[in-house]
Design brief:
single chain, alpha/beta, Rossmann fold, Pre-protein croslinking domain of SecA, 3 domains, 7-stranded parallel beta sheet, 3-stranded mixed beta sheet, 22 helices, 18 strands, globular
Length: 513
C-alpha cells in the first residue's frame, strides 16, 4: 500500500489536484476585487443573488463569491484566507469533511462556504461544540457577513421567543449542536406552525465534526415533561441497596454460569456499563420487602427501582458522571467535561442518584420527544465538517453519513513535534512521571497544559502539585465559568494548567499570556 501511495498519491492528494484550478481562479481575481470600493464590493452580494435566481449554480458563483468574501475578510478583520484555507472552504461547500491541523484557521475557513451558500436564501447553520465558541464566532466572523449585507443569528442557551425566530430567519445562524437538536424537537411538538423556529435543514458546517458526529453520535436529546409525583420508594430502595455487597469486574463472561457460592449481591461490569443483581441479592430483596418472587409482574416497579439504585451506586461516580452543586445533582458531559444544567438522566436514574446523595428527590419525568445527533444531522440536504482529526474515523464518516474526508496540508511546514505515546506499568508510575515532567518544564519557565479525563483526576494531580509547591490553575466542571479566561492565560511564563477535556476548544493560547 505504501508503494502504491508513492506511485499514485493518496486520495486527498488527488482531490487537491482536482480543486487546484478553482483555487487558481479565486486567487487570479484578487487584484480585481482589491480595486473595488467598499460599496462596489458590497453590491456583489445582490449581484450574486440575482444571478443565482436567474439560473446560475452555486458552483458557478464559487470563484467570484470566495474572492469577494476573501477581500471582505481582509478589509474587516485584517485576515486574507491563505490558499490552503480556500481549499478547505471548497471542500466544505462540496459537502465533505476538511481535516485541517490545529491553528490553521478553521473559523475563518467556514466564512467562505457560509457566504456562498447563504446566497441561495435557504439559510446556513454553523454548528460549534459550546455556547462560548458560537457567540464568539457569530460576533467575530459576523462582521464579515454583515459588511457584505447578510444577516447573522445566534442560537445558544438563553435565546428564546422572538430572538430565536430572528436567529433562524438570518442568512447564517451560529449555534451549538444541543440547541439545534432541541429546537428541532420543540418544532415537532409545536401545535401551530407559527410556533416553529427552524425553517429547514439546507446546509450545515459542523466544527469539531469528529466530536459531534462520531463521539456523541448516539447521544439522545430528550425533552421530558412532568410525570407522577416522585415517591419515597427511591429513598427506601437506596437504603436497602446501600447495605448490599458489590463486586466489580472488568468484564462478565455471559457464557459463564453464576457461582452459587457468589458472596456478592450485585455485580458491576465497568467495561460493559451494566449492573446485575445476583441470586443472593434477589433473595435479600425478597426478604427485605416481604415478597414471594421479585420477578412476578406485580413487582415490576420495585424491581426497576432496585436496578436503578444499584446502577446509581455501582456505576455512577460523583465528580466523574455528575457533581452535586447547591443541593442538586448536575450531569457532567462525558465528552466535554461541562456541566449540563437542566438535563436529567431518564427512567428514574436521576432520582436514584439523588436518593444516593441525600439531596431532595425531584419529581419524576416522562419522555415527550427524543432524537440522536446522528439522526438529526442526517436531516440536512448538505452536511460538511472540519476538525484536526478526521482521517482516523474516515470509514465511519463514509458509512454513516456518506461523507468523504480530505486531508489539507498546513500553510507552513509543521514545527510542532508530536511524540509517541508512553505506556506505564501502573497508574502510580504514570502520575509520578507526569509530575516529574511538569517540574522540569516549570523550572525552565515553560508553560504546561495537562489534560485529564475527569474532575477526580484533575483534582488528584492538583493535590500532587500542591505537595511539590508548584502554583497552578485547575479547570474542570466545578469552575467552568472561567474556562476561556483560564485557557487563554495558559501560555504565561511558567504557567501550569490542569484541565479536563472541556478545556476551551477554539480559545487561542498566546505565549506570554
Amino acid at each position: 500500500m505504501g508503494l502504491l501511495k508513492k506511485l499514485f498519491g493518496t486520495s486527498s492528494e488527488k482531490e487537491l489536484k482536482a480543486i487546484a484550478p478553482i483555487v487558481n481562479k479565486i486567487e487570479s481575481l484578487d487584484a480585481e476585487y482589491s480595486a473595488l470600493t467598499d460599496e462596489q464590493l458590497q453590491a456583489k452580494t445582490q449581484e450574486f443573488k440575482d444571478r443565482y435566481q436567474n439560473g446560475e449554480s452555486l458552483d458557478d458563483l464559487l470563484p467570484e463569491a470566495f474572492a469577494a468574501c476573501r477581500e471582505a475578510s481582509w478589509r474587516v478583520l485584517g485576515m486574507k484566507p491563505y490558499r490552503v484555507q480556500l481549499i478547505g472552504g471548497i471542500i466544505l461547500h462540496q459537502g465533505r469533511i476538511a481535516e485541517m491541523k490545529t491553528g490553521e484557521g478553521k473559523t475563518l475557513v467556514a466564512t467562505l462556504p457560509a457566504y456562498l451558500n447563504a446566497l441561495s436564501g435557504k439559510g446556513v447553520h454553523i454548528v460549534t461544540v459550546n455556547d462560548y465558541l458560537a457567540k464568539r464566532d457569530s460576533e467575530w466572523m459576523g462582521k464579515v457577513y454583515r459588511f457584505m449585507g447578510l444577516t447573522v443569528g445566534l442560537v445558544i442557551h438563553g435565546v428564546v421567543g422572538a430572538a430565536k425566530h430572528l436567529a433562524y430567519a438570518a442568512d447564517i445562524t451560529y449555534g451549538t449542536n444541543n440547541e439545534f437538536g432541541f429546537d428541532y424537537l420543540r418544532d415537532n411538538m409545536a401545535i401551530y406552525k407559527q410556533e416553529m423556529v427552524q425553517r429547514g435543514h439546507a446546509f450545515a458546517i459542523v466544527d469539531e465534526v469528529d466530536s459531534i458526529l462520531i463521539d456523541e453520535a448516539r447521544t439522545p436529546l430528550i425533552i421530558s415533561g412532568q410525570g407522577d409525583e416522585s415517591t419515597q420508594l427511591y429513598t427506601i430502595v437506596d437504603n436497602f441497596v446501600s447495605r448490599l455487597k458489590c463486586k466489580v469486574v472488568a468484564s462478565v463472561d455471559t457464557k459463564e454460569e453464576e457461582d452459587p457460592n457468589e458472596d456478592a449481591d450485585y455485580i458491576v461490569d465497568e467495561k460493559a456499563r451494566t449492573v446485575t443483581l445476583t441470586a443472593n441479592g434477589v433473595a435479600k430483596a425478597e426478604k427485605a420487602f416481604n415478597l414471594e418472587n421479585l420477578a412476578d409482574p406485580e413487582n415490576t416497579t420495585l424491581s426497576h427501582h432496585i436496578n436503578q439504585a444499584i446502577r446509581a451506586r455501582g456505576l455512577m461516580k460523583r465528580d466523574i458522571d455528575y457533581v452535586v452543586k447547591d443541593g442538586e445533582v448536575i450531569i457532567v458531559d462525558e465528552f466535554t467535561g461541562r456541566l449540563m444544567f437542566g438535563r436529567r438522566y431518564s427512567d428514574g436514574l436521576h432520582q436514584a442518584i439523588e436518593a444516593k446523595e441525600g439531596v431532595k428527590v425531584a419529581r419524576e419525568s416522562k419522555t415527550l420527544a427524543t432524537i440522536t445527533f446522528q439522526n438529526y444531522f442526517r436531516l440536512y440536504d448538505k452536511l460538511s465538517g472540519m476538525t484536526g482529526t478526521a482521517m482516523t474515523e474516515e470509514d465511519e464518516f463514509n458509512g454513516t453519513y456518506s461523507l468523504d474526508v480530505v486531508e489539507i496540508p498546513t500553510n507552513k511546514p509543521l514545527a510542532r513535534v508530536d511524540h509517541h505515546d508512553v505506556v506505564y506499568k501502573n497508574e502510580a508510575g504514570k502520575y509520578r512521571a507526569i509530575i516529574r515532567q511538569i517540574e522540569e518544564c516549570h523550572a525552565k519557565g515553560q508553560p504546561v497544559l495537562v489534560g485529564t479525563i475527569s474532575i477526580e483526576k484533575s483534582e488528584m494531580l492538583s493535590n500532587m502539585l500542591k505537595k511539590k509547591g508548584i502554583k497552578h490553575n485547575v479547570l474542570n466542571a466545578k469552575n467552568h465559568e472561567k474556562e476561556a479566561e483560564i485557557v487563554a492565560q495558559a501560555g504565561k511564563l511558567g504557567a501550569v494548567t490542569v484541565a479536563t477535556n472541556m478545556a476551551g476548544r477554539g480559545t487561542d493560547i498566546m505565549l506570554g499570556g
